[in-house]
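Figure S4 source data
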Amino acid sequence: MTITQKEYQNLLTILNSSDEENKIVGLTTLENLKYEANEIYIMLLLKHSSLSAKLIEEHAPSLVKLHSDLITYNSIWVKMKKKNMKKIVNKEIVEFFLQDWLNFMKDSLKSAGYDFIEDLNIKIEINGELK
């Protein structure tokens, strides 16, 4: 099963729940997803979740190393570049990652005092087609 952006949002809500049982359900779901088809979503879910390493180790042991490697967007980007970018044919996933990164950049710039920046945009060009 490949998750959709809506399912991503639902899983993120579950993983960030204050209820530990919800977090366990979310981790069990991640553990049972086909990793390769969902790798970018799984990486972003782990990055944006409030999960402890202990909880991940107990309920999603196959994701422990991945979680510890995801300190920055750069680490996600490096993983994508090494493994996935050539394999990903679904431009929706790449666009989703880049939009997530762009939102991170906007927030980072504003929190660093660059509040004069009204907006940031990314132009994606795929095979000569502007998106």
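Figure S5 source data
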Amino acid sequence: MIVLSIDPSLRRLGWATFNDQQGHKEMLGTSAWDFGTLSPRVAGRRERMDRVRSFFDQKRLTDVNQLVYEEPSYFSSPRGAIALKEGYLTDLGIVIGIAIGTFPKAQIWSYKPQTWKGSVPKEVTYKKWLRTFVDSSKYCDKVNHDLIDAIMLLHYHLKQVNIG
């Protein structure tokens, strides 16, 4: 079984894949793909979403059995209010919709950020990632919060379904 975890943001798509084939469990790959800003001022929505679609096509992750994603959430802060007003939650929803459409046979699992990591600052999730994966450097070459969230969301999900 192959599990794909994604954490979309306005600039990057953090992703992690896990393989549980024939009792052999391994992390297949992790990365944060930087597709540029989703800000409506930079490019049209269709162009931005075409970039996301081409990413999934290039990765050729055709055997994904479970797709796990973090639900876009509105946070009651000035920054969150601006994101809501600018339509960013819609864009994040579209990214997730493209992922779901790319893997039509996969079981879909979604988690609210508050469910899997609580309402903690990014630094707390980062420190938990370092403690969980002692040799964290082998899982990624470029660390950022989207990548760490995708890995930790995958880790949380695997525990929930008794795989990891």
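The longest strand covers residues 24-34. The beta strands are 2-8, 12-21, 24-34, 64-70, 107-111.
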